[in-house]
Structure formats: structure tokens, C-alpha cells
Amino acid sequence: MFVELNNLLNTTPDRAEQGKLTLLCDAKTDGSFLVHHFLSFYLKANCKVCFVALIQSFSHYSIVGQKLGVSLTMARERGQLVFLEGLKSAVDVVFQAQKEPHPLQFLREANAGNLKPLFEFVREALKPVDSGEARWTYPVLLVDDLSVLLSLGMGAVAVLDFIHYCRATVCWELKASILYLMQGNMVVLVHDSGDAEDEENDILLNGLSHQSHLILRAEGLATGFCRDVHGQLRILWRRPSQPAVHRDQSFTYQYKIQDKSVSFFAKGMSPAVL
Amino acid sequence: MAAVATCGSVAASTGSAVATASKSNVTSFQRRGPRASVTNDSGPRLVSIAGTRPSVRNGQLLVSTGLPALDQLLGGGLAVGTVLLIEEDKYNIYSPLLFKYFLAEGIVNGHTLLVASAKEDPANILQELPAPLLDDKCKKEFDEDVYNHKTPESNIKMKIAWRYQLLPKMEIGPVSSSRFGHYYDASKRMPQELIEASNWHGFFLPEKISSTLKVEPCSLTPGYTKLLQFIQNIIYEEGFDGSNPQKKQRNILRIGIQNLGSPLWGDDICCAENGGNSHSLTKFLYVLRGLLRTSLSACIITMPTHLIQNKAIIARVTTLSDVVVGLESFIGSERETNPLYKDYHGLIHIRQIPRLNNLICDESDVKDLAFKLKRKLFTIEAGVQWHDLGSRQPRLLGSSNSPASASLVAGITGAHHHTQLIFVFLVEMGFHHVGQAGLELLTSGDSSASASQSAGITGMSYRARPRALYFKENKSKVGARQLLETREEHLSSRLLILTQAERLCMGRRFFTAFHIFNELPCKGDCICLQTCQTQ
User: Fold this and answer.
1) What are phi and psi of B190, to 5 degrees?
2) What are the BP-aspect GO terms (chain B) (predicted)?
């Protein structure tokens, strides 16, 4: 969790908004530091987190998480974190026939199927446990990253359907016996291919941008590589319920990633320049 | 969060110098099957595998790619469990060399090899590996090379050198007892006894495709499916992932896949834009990476990306690989006759470096890298010396006034924003960044590399804006000083000129200056000025 980013987003782990879909987008740079931020943020906020990690292994997130102050192994033991490691599961799915449907079942199918098994996995993971006491505050689904699903043969529409189902479940679901809204959050990462003319990716990105409440867009600098400024972060709040004046608010900051934190500053105000 | 996993503490402590062998060399990827899930693992495992070393940044296990210069660019080497993707050059002349260097490094270090090709029999590939340069021969050749430095000839020996005009020369010579990274002589073959002593597996597609191996149904093309099965078999049977109870392996598996994605593998992404199998390659890469992450292996793949019709696939392939290096040779292009590049055979682009177990990665500052294949060695050099620019009139992009080359012109060109910004860069020595679309390459007829004359250019890589215009100021040093003295005055008119001190530390300021440029509200055209210090 980066304290400076919390200040910019005006949140703390204690009083974060619920029922929101946050879209992380990166163009020409690597936006994975945002994923690490949100992972540690929600673990510190005592939420139940389901992390669908399709691009890196568990130890990668675990080691970075330790730098940010959370222990993923402990969280997984406690039941706070449900981790789907895409790389390892893909090997299992492809090389061995599975008896029950596996979340990544679509890897075995030739045609573009749907992501129903993956959705079932998420729903199962975030189902509130009937243990009486509420251990976790609210459920959170984290996906890193959705563009990989496109590379693995899913169509953009299938991925959008999956997100829609997840949102309906995670962000608003009525529990049968007790009527309360399990308002959870969702954070997904999508790559912006820029000028690579990836139509499926553009469809996915546009579709998600319209649905999300908060968009964090990490971009590389237009002039290329800079040692002191790693990129630019655009924060866009979309509040459809507010009057048009207070609607989409947008800020732009530049950032530099350090070993354990990320420092943000206004454009042109990098400490290296001043 | 008080209980910190012991392997995590190793990673945290690698901020200090990892010098002693007692520090863990543990790879951060899970490489033991059932036991890895035990959280109170017995802490750092002392794994000392030949030919590997831990990364100073995050304690990851690294192997050499066979080219010490490339290792340096990648931040020490290739991490175990990752994929190195080489985007082939147009005529596939230099990428097989990198492929062979990787395999040769494996043989010299005693690693197990897995060579997969659809074009050539792996046994033939192994016969053609370059011979390693042994220590005493290396030293002799280095001395000769230094002697021949002033007279560039085509048959100078291999030297891996970084040359910056103003900075002290940093030579990476072969260490006498280097266990990490060797030099190879491309004109000689690897001794037969070394090849026979090594443990290697070959996958030649025409042989395997006809065999009736039981294949799990999968949506990949049959060639890819068979290759994946083959790799998985080897990994399991030889115990590289630790899941085989009988075999305890303490070695690295080096996998080399040649020409992946070409039609010989049965894939049609190079032939058709929207073929039926457009996801085959990306799925293959995904599953391959999954296999690598859980085993002690490293993989090199060469791919003819210039043939892939659908650009989106290239972007996806890049995302799914860890390290991506692109080769661009000058053969057949107009750069072959460009006097600036007469010593070089091509450019090498480091397109992507992974961030493994870390928020940041070790990117090198140098982005302009050129390679040349001398008679024996493959050299990578950074920063091309820019020479006299005065011989050709620079072409202005989108401006109305044409500059006089002999005098400093500070003008606002083609600005269609309400505020205009002009940047004037005075640099001693510049990187010449080439290869970006639309940037006019200014060359000079006089390519003498005299040390006294240094002219700088700021090469800008840009997509649309800002535009860079190059002027040459033919004045003496006095003129430049006058310009610097009027800095205050120019600031008011929004000229930003770097001071002498800033020029000297050009490397950092160069990019910082670009950053300033980027930040200011106007993205008008900019003028870059270089001074030619005539003595």
C-alpha cells in the first residue's frame, strides 16, 4: 500500500468505499505496481480477497507484498486470501484431464468458450461463510490481468460477461437468509495496447471504462524513457449519480517507483528536475 | 504480519551486497512440488549450481545468456524460470547466433539442454556451436584488439566494450576464472568431446509429428502440443521441478526453441492475418511459462515477428514473455550505406525486462545499442559518436523558416498552441537514437572520429510530437559561452538551456530535459541545438 497513493485517492483502509469497480490500465509501461498497492490495501483493510493472478506466480506477489507490509502466505492460511495462480493451474489443466470443472477449463477447448467455471470459482471463494461472526469486512475480487484472457482464446464479449457476472455477485448480492448487501469491490487490470490495433483489447477496455467507478491509468512518458520519472498516472473518478458538475474528475500525477514505495508528484515537479 | 516467512527475509536482505556464497541462491519461484506448500520452509536453501549466480537486486537465480554484454543489459543475466524472446532480424542471420551462444553457455557450464527446432535437426545445431574462448587466448586477443583500436578493420577480435566519449572507458574483459558468462569464438566449432559429454535432448518436429504419442486434447496446433508434452516429460523425468521423488536434480535445464511461430511449426500467423489458430502461439507461451516458473529452467525462443501479420499478436506475445530483445540488422536497408553505421551490423533493442519479485527492474539507461559481428566476437556497443553535422542541411519538419546552418537560430516553428516552448539542448556527446519513424537521420560526410571534435546530437524518439529539429552552430566556444550567459534572458522567453555542468553529466540530464519538455503544457515543436566544439 503506497501511502501517497492513498492520499491522492483520498482513502484509507479503514474507510474505503464499497461496491466499486476500479479499472487499472497501463499503456506503454508496466502498471503492476498498482495491483500490488490494491492487494496490500485490501488485505490491510481486513477484507476477504480473491486474487486471480494470471500473469505471475504466487511468490512474486508474496515477496513484493512483504516489502509493502503484508504477508500473503499468512493471509492465505487464515483464509483471508484465495489465490488462483494462473500459470500453475494452466499446467495442471493442459496436461492432466480434470474430473471436476477447473477454473481455467477453457484452455482445453478449441473454440472460444465462456468463463463460467472461473466465475463459479470466484463466487465460491467470496461466498460469506456462515460462521456467525463476521470476520472480514467485505469481499474483494482482484484480477491481474484481463488481457491475458484474450490471449488465451477468450473473446472480449466473454470476458465482459465474466466481469458483469462478477460485479453482480461481488458488488451487490443479497444473501438469502439475511438481507444485507454484500457490497464488495473489484479491481481489474487491463493493458492498453495503444497503436497495436488490438481490437478485442480495445473493446474490453472501453467496455470496462464505462462500467467502472475509478480508473487509474499508468502511462509511459510520451518522450520515452526517463530514469527519474517512470511514468504518469491519470486518476479518473466517474460518479454517475452526482450532478454533472461534480462528475468525472480527473487528476494527473507523475510517479517514480522505488524499492518499497512509489512517490507521486505533480507534472514537472520531479525532485530530480527541481 | 509479524511472522515473516524466512525466504522472504532473504529477499529483503539482498539490498546489502550479496557477496558470500552463504547467502541464499534460492530461486524465488516454487520449484519443489509438495514441499513448497509448507510455509515454514526451512529457510534459504543453499543451492550452488554451476553457471548461476544470485541477482544483487532480489536474490533471484540468474544464468548467463552466453553474451556477457547482453547479461549486463538485462541486469546481470537471465533469471531462472523466465523466457527470453529474441525477435529475429529480417534475414535470420544474427538471431541463430544468439541462440547458439545460449546453448554453448549451457554446454560449458554443464547444464542440460533441450533443443527444439522445426527446421534443423538439433544434432546439427549442436555441431555448429561456437567454441569457448579460454582464458589465455582471450587475454592475448584483447591486447591485440586494443592495439587495433584506432584502425577499424573488419577482422578485429571480439571485444565487448562500452564506449562513451567523455566517460571513462569501461571494458568488460573476460575474467580469468569466470564461471558466469563466457566468450565464444564464432569461427571455431565447439570441441566434439564437450558436446558428447553434455546431456542434451532434441526435439525435431518432422520426426515427432508422425509418432503416435498420446496427446491430451488441446486447442493448440499439434506441433506445439507435442513440444509442450516433450518439455513437460523431460522436466518431470529428470527432476527439474522437484516433483519426481526418484530424481534429485541440481542442474539447470536450458531450453532453446528456434523459429517459433513460423509456418514450419504448423502455425499460420505468419501467413494469414486472422487465421484459425491465432491463439495457439499465445497459449503455448502461457503454458510454457507456467512450466518454467515451477522448474529450474530457462528458455530462449527466437521468433520471426517481422513476419507476423497481425500486430496485436506481437503485442500479446511481448506481454506473455519475460525478456524481449529485438534484433534489427542493416542488411538490405538504407542504413547499410550510412556512414554512421559503417562499423556496425545492426541494432539491438531491449524491448522488455521483467519486474520479478520487485516493483522495479534494472533497466539500463542506454537505449541505443548497436551490435557488430567481428570475425569472432559478437559485440554490443552503446552510444554512437556523432560527427560533424555541418555537411548537410537539416530538414525542418513542419516549419516555415529554414535555418541557416552557420548561425544559431532560435525560432518557434510550427507552433499551433497558444504557448510555445523552445528547448535548446547543448550537449557534448549524444546518443544517436535511430530507428524511429519519421525522424530524419542526419548524417555527415566527414566521419572522422577525432577526439578533439565532439559534436552532440540529441536524438529524439518520438511518435508524433514533439518534433526535433537539428541545427548546427558553427561558432566557436565563445559563441556557446555567450549563449550560456544569456540564460536568464532566455528563460524569460522560455528558452531552456542547459549549463556546462549539466552538459557534462549528460546522461542523466538528457532524459531529465526531455522530461521537462514533456511536462510543460505546450507540446510545440522544439529545437535542439548542438554545438560543435572546434578546437
Assistant:
1) -65, 135
2) tRNA wobble uridine modification
Nearest chain A residue to B278, by CA: A153
State the pTM of this model: 0.71
Joined together, the cell numbers standing for residue B6 give 524466512
CB-CB contact of B250 with B259 (8 Å): no
Q: How many CB atoms lie within 10 A of CB B224?
A: 26
Residue A175: partners with Cβ closer than 8 Å, 6 or more residues away: A128, A182
How many other CB atoms are found less than 10 A from the CB of residue B131? 18
Out of A70, A199, A257, whose CB is closest to B360?
Answer: A257
- As a whole number of angstroms, the distance between CA B65 and CA A209 comes to 41
With b meaning 16 or more CB within 10 Å and e meaning fewer, what string describes B82-95?
bbbbbbbbbebebb
A226 closest CB neighbour out of B8, B282, B514: B514
- What type of residue sits at position B88? E
Contact A73, A79 (CB under 8 A): no
Nearest-Cα distance to chain A for B137, in Å, is 39
pLDDT in tens, A107-154: 877 776 788 889 999 888 887 776 655 677 888 899 988 888 888 888
The amino acid present at B137, given as its one-letter code, is K
* Residues contacting residue B294 through CB under 8 Å, at least 6 positions apart: A57, A87, A88, A91, B29, B30, B31, B33, B81, B241
Binary contact (B511, A224; C-beta < 8 A): yes
Average pLDDT along chain B, 535 residues, taken 10 residues at a time: 39 38 43 38 55 82 89 88 93 91 91 92 91 64 45 43 44 46 85 88 86 65 89 88 75 92 86 77 92 92 90 89 91 81 85 87 79 79 47 34 32 33 35 34 35 35 37 38 45 47 50 41 39 33
Shortest distance between the Cα of B503 and any Cα of chain A, in A, equals 14
B289: chain A residues, CB-CB within 8 Å: 87
Q: Is B359 in contact with A64 (Cβ distance < 8 A)?
A: yes
Residue of B432, B429, B466 lying closest to B335 (CA atoms): B432
Q: Which of A220, A262, A235, A196 lies closest to A23, judged by CA? A: A235
Nearest to A91 among B287, B319, B356 (CB): B287
Question: What residue has cell string 490481468?
Answer: A145
CB contact under 8 A, B294 and A88: yes
Q: Looking at this predicted complex, what is its ipTM?
A: 0.91
Which residue did the predictor score with more confidence, A160 or B35? A160
Quick check: A59 and B462 CB within 8 A? no
List, as one string, the DSSP characters of B140-151: HHHHHHHHGGGS
Of the candidates A107, A103, A105, the one whose C-alpha atom is nearest the C-alpha of residue A141 is: A103
Residues of A in contact with B523 (CB under 8 A): 222
CB contact under 8 A, A77 and B460: no
CB contacts < 8 A (A, B): 189
Chain B residues closer than 8 Å to A88 by CB: 30, 290, 293-294
**Using alpha carbons only, what angle is made at residue A253 by residues A251 and A256, rounded to the nearest 5 degrees?**
160
- Higher pLDDT pick, A98 / A68: A68
Contacts of B316 in chain A (CB under 8 A): 147, 150-151, 198
**All three cell numbers of B107:** 554446454
Tell me whether residues B516 and A63 touch, CB distance under 8 A.
no
Q: Is the domain covering B80-130+185-382 a CATH 3.40.50.300 domain? A: yes
Domain boundaries, chain B: 80-130+185-382
Indicate the helix (H) or strand (E) that contains B170.
Answer: strand B170-171
Q: How far is CA B470 from CA B101, B400, B404, B440, in A?
A: 40, 15, 11, 10
Q: How many CA atoms lie within 13 A of B487 on its CB side?
A: 11
Q: What is the largest CA-CA distance in chain A?
A: 62
